[in-house]
Amino acid sequence: MENVSNVNIDMLYIAVAIMIGLAAIGAAIGIGILGSKFLEGAARQPDLVPLLRTQFFVVMGLVDAIPMIAVGLGLYMLFAIS
């Protein structure tokens, strides 16, 4: 019976590692795409840079918030459940 409990804890560790890893990769890809689109827009319309910059930082905060939530849930699963 002790072996089955050990396997469940090991699966929990793997699940948390995958959750945190995919959150980091997703945030990096999302912010990279967002930054490239911002630079494209700034190159096309230089007079709209202040408006684009404001929208860029708002959306970047939203894109970055989802991985933070995933990391928080992963750490909760790691320390509170196991």
UniProtKB/TrEMBL annotation:
GO molecular function, one term: hydrolase activity
Every V-ATPase proteolipid subunit C-like domain range: 14-77
Domain of life: Bacteria
One Gene Ontology cellular component annotation held by this UniProt entry: proton-transporting ATP synthase complex
Record's keyword terms, sorted: ATP synthesis, Cell membrane, CF(0), Hydrogen ion transport, Hydrolase, Ion transport, Lipid-binding, Membrane, Transmembrane, Transmembrane helix, Transport
Bilayer disposition of the protein: Multi-pass membrane protein
Membrane-spanning ranges: 12-35, 56-79
Site (Reversibly protonated during proton transport): 64
Job of this protein: F(1)F(0) ATP synthase produces ATP from ADP in the presence of a proton or sodium gradient. F-type ATPases consist of two structural domains, F(1) containing the extramembraneous catalytic core and F(0) containing the membrane proton channel, linked together by a central stalk and a peripheral stalk. During catalysis, ATP synthesis in the catalytic domain of F(1) is coupled via a rotary mechanism of the central stalk subunits to proton translocation. Key component of the F(0) channel; it plays a direct role in translocation across the membrane. A homomeric c-ring of between 10-14 subunits forms the central stalk rotor element with the F(1) delta and epsilon subunits.
Similarity section: Belongs to the ATPase C chain family.
Name listed for the protein in its UniProt record: ATP synthase subunit c
Species name: Buchnera aphidicola
Gene this chain is encoded by: atpE
